[in-house]
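Quick check before the chapter quiz. The format below is the same one you will see on the exam, so make sure you can read both the input and the output lines.
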Amino acid sequence: MFQVFQPSNQDIASCAEVYLSAYRSKPWNETFDKTTIENYILSYCHSDTMKCFAAAIDHTIIGIALALLVPSIHTPYLRIEDFCIELESQRKGYGTLFIHSILKKAKKLGCDSVLLNTQRNFPSHKFYLKNGFSEIESVLLYSKIK
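Here is the expected output.
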C-alpha cells in the first residue's frame, strides 16, 4: 500500500538512505555521507515553514521530498527543494503517485502553486513535465558569497 506522511525522527535514517540511493546514481553522482544527509533532512522536519514528506510502500520508505512553504502577497506556495525516489523503486509509477500526493498536501496547506527547479538535460525535467508542471519564463541567478 502506497502512503505519504511526515516522517518521525525514527524514520530519518531510512529517509537518508533513500536520498543517498537516488543521488549516488547518474546524472548526480553525489558522494554525501549519511550523517550530513540525516542532519539536512532533520532541518526540514521541525518547522512550520519547512516540510518533509516521505513516500512508503508497505511501510518501507522509498521516496523523500523536502519543501519550503513560502508566503506571498495573495496565497502561499510550496517550493520543492529536493524530491527523490530510491534507485530500485524508480520507473514504477511511485514518483508520479508521490508528486501528486504532494500537490494535494500543498492545496490543503492553502497553496495555489508548487514551484521547483531542475535542469533540462536531467531525467527529472521530463518527469516533472509529464506530471503537469510547466516551464516558466524566469531566470535563476546565482551569486557565490565571498
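If your answer matched, good. The first strand starts at residue 2 and ends at 5.
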